[in-house]
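Record format v2
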Amino acid sequence: MNTDQRERFEDRLLVALREIVAERAAAAPAEVEQPRAVPVRPVRWRPRLALAVGATALGAAAAVVLPSVLGGDSAYAVARQEDGTIRVEIRQVSDAQGLERRLAELGIPAEVDYLPDGQVCRQPRYAEAAAGAMAGGSGGGGPGGDSGGEGDHRADYSGGSASFTLRPADFASGETLVIATAGRQSLSAIEVAVVEGPVLPCVPVSAEDQRPVRPGGPTR
Amino acid sequence: MRRTSEGGDLRRIAREAGAFEVFYREHVEAVQRFIARRVGDPHLAADLTADVFVAVIDSAEGYRPELGDPARWLFGVARNVLAADRRRSARGLRAAGRLAGRALLDEDDLAELEARIDAESHARRLYEAMDQLPEGERAVLELVALDGLPVSDAARVLGIRASNARVRLHRARRQLRHRLTPATTGIATPTEVLP
């Protein structure tokens, strides 16, 4: 910063920002400050497919929720497919960090949280919603529904594991893949979202407290 | 946005005001130049400067060293904030940030901001010319042509492979070439831009 003595914009901004940091520090870990209020699609915490990720939904938050049971012998599998898409399969709710690292290697920034049954991450966690791109969003498939809908984002439930397919290009401008599951050993529910902008750390809350206010409909 | 910060400490800046201040002082000028290459209104530039650092505070705990050093990470955060604002303004919206940067400006600050914005007018015209590009290609071109990052660094900021970034850069340049007068260093420093 400059060497002159007058107080400048940068100094005043620093004071204001330090206050924000101090507020966060003062808050208990369970009281992480929420991002600017930006509507995100509420997560349906129901044992069925709630909606698919919009294929071109730059920054859109979208979620799939589906049931699962334990299957397979490794916790997860991430593989690049011939068409360039990346298939993610979660078989067991362990080693979230490992899954994050594996996705990062393939160019997909991810936040993965595995929670006990009945818990979800407090919403909203995502700071930005897209420009009118809240695409996707079939109202819900049946239990065990096998397809999430459009584009290259598909969510499947088969063979006892949850899987979905991603296009790396959709993460080119800083989008983050957010995965949150419930279940102690086996998956009982999973939320998958592609979001733009910062993602707050997961603050576990009871799923009952996080029921969507307006289930089924995009918030904008 | 030099590459000097200690990556391991970045997560602390969300909770420790002292650590945040070190990071802020190191990067605030670069962030303001980054914004001046994209925004011509000094009041909006001040708001966005505040927005970028609020986003830094919000997302620092999610920082992971394998995604790039803090300077590159900051480029990514700033680009996201600016891109989100661009999309909103295309719809005639301006989200109210948590912190109104413009309220912190005095006359001298405005003069400094305008000078910085004037100095970046070439870059800004290039930025505006990028409106026709697909987002993925635009992202690479911005970081390389506007911000001077090596392609490999831009790739890391965007979380894509360097080869992929080079392909996008090539496509982006090809699409813009017919609208930009060739310059000796490619389109990074166009002497004349739009009609």
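Chain B touches chain A through 59 residues (CB under 8 Å).
The domain at 121-195 of chain B is CATH 1.10.10.10 (Arc Repressor Mutant, subunit A).
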